[in-house]
Amino acid sequence: MTAPTPADHDSPYDLVGIGIGPFNLSLAALADPVPGFRSLFLDSRPGFSWHPGMLMEGTTLQVPFLADLVTMADPTSRWSYLNYLRHHDRMFRFFFSERFHIPRREYDDYCRWVAEGLDSCRFGAEVVALEWDERADAFAVVHRSEGTETRVLARQVVLGVGTDPVVPAALRGLMTGAHADRVMHSADYRTHRARLAAADDVTVIGSGQSGAEVALDLLRHQDGEGQGGPFVRWLARTTAFAPMEYSKIGLEHFTPDYIHYFRGLPEATRERLVREQWQLYKGVSGDTLGEIYDELYERTIGGGDPRAALHPGVELIGAVADGDGYVLTCRSQQQDEPFEVRTSAVVSATGYCASRPAFLKPLTDLVDWDDKGRYQVDGDYRVALDPRVTGTLYVQNAEMHTHGVGAPDLTLGAWRSATILNAATGRDVLPMAARQAFTTFGTPPDAARPDAARPDAARPDASGAAGPGAGAQLPADPAATSSGGPR
Questions:
Q1: pLDDT (tens digit, 9 = 90+) per residue, 235-288?
Q2: What gap in Å lies between CA 341 and CA 200, rounded to an integer?
Q3: What is the pTM of this model?
Q4: Residue 63 to residues 104, 115, 118: CA-CA distances in angstroms?
Q5: Taking the CB of the first residue and of the last residue of the chain, which one, N or C, has fewer CB atoms within 10 A?
Q6: How far apart are CA 350 and CA 474, in angstroms?
Q7: Up-side HSE of residue 247: CA atoms within 13 Å toward CB?
Q8: What's the CA dihedral at 385, 388, 392, 398 to 10 degrees?
Q9: Looking at residue 377, what DSSP letter applies?
């Protein structure tokens, strides 16, 4: 490998983004028209692609088209989805289609159009190291392209490297070599779709949208009589195949208001809430559940029996290869009973999680990790660093533990990017409204304190009585007073 070449410019970039998924692409698009602001965004892939393994026909975004890369922060941007339609002569067709939720394949194409139109986006550039250069008083970003390493400097860096697929421990030893086209994560489903459709029996694991879409797609590969195509088995740990929360009030959890509230809660409360609120971000579209039911119903016409089985409340605890198939050991959680199923292939639609990228190793000792090894992220999405580092590191979609369930959601993508851009420029390039939700999360700011917390209120005596003469007049305990709501 050749030595790193000098930086593209002698002076540092104002901002370098690592990874070009929708979130960093949003930031690149919003930063594009800012005068004098020099930014660069790097990605190892040859071009933009968004979850290519799940771009099946008929699948749609779970958020409205207004949650594109820019509109929620700057509806006048040239990089809006509506401008994409205009440039592709599809405005009237979109208008007459009356779509609020656009095809997933179209969102991928829209993002590619933006990425290819931005001079700041550079693909085929794999970041291999992120360091702090004390002499330059800047971050050094080393990236490799066509065998050559290049070093650029940046005053600020934003990590947008996305998340990695998660699979149950029982399957990890079966996802390589000869098993790779029969045991896989849903991220690779489309690549192996034809082989899975021809299998005798396919087991889908996971109760979220991806699991539902894979199960539905496989059901649609069965012929009209339900004889051709695979037997489809859908397993999930959740107690039900539940619809995603999509009420208008419920969706206000995906507003800046809720982020501000969530950040003010104790860590233990935040951890509990993320677990409890799974239906806000891990449920299934009600339309998709309805389509699955309709497919199964069709199979019963004329006395037929659907070649499918749906099993909620089931945990996968073991898996072994057996001849030309696999034996899965499962456990019914409510009955606490183990059982086995035999299947020809397995698709693990078990989600994604943030991980620490290898290129961050030179900076590891300068990041102030929390006690679980995660980034500590402030309200402007800055990562806490050692005081010796005078530059700023931001992160996108690795802050659910500090900012709540909206972290991976496209709805808040443009708002978060605008927040980072305002912080990175030191001014309100894109002013954001202070309040967006009708819901008041937590204690109302103007709420009156209970009488027991007022300095002039009587405290109860040992008998529980209160009022004049009922007990000594004591000052209110400061620890017992209301703070007026979290800030």
A1: 999 999 999 999 999 999 999 999 999 999 999 999 999 999 999 988 999 999
A2: 13
A3: 0.89
A4: 10, 21, 24
A5: N
A6: 56
A7: 4
A8: -20
A9: B
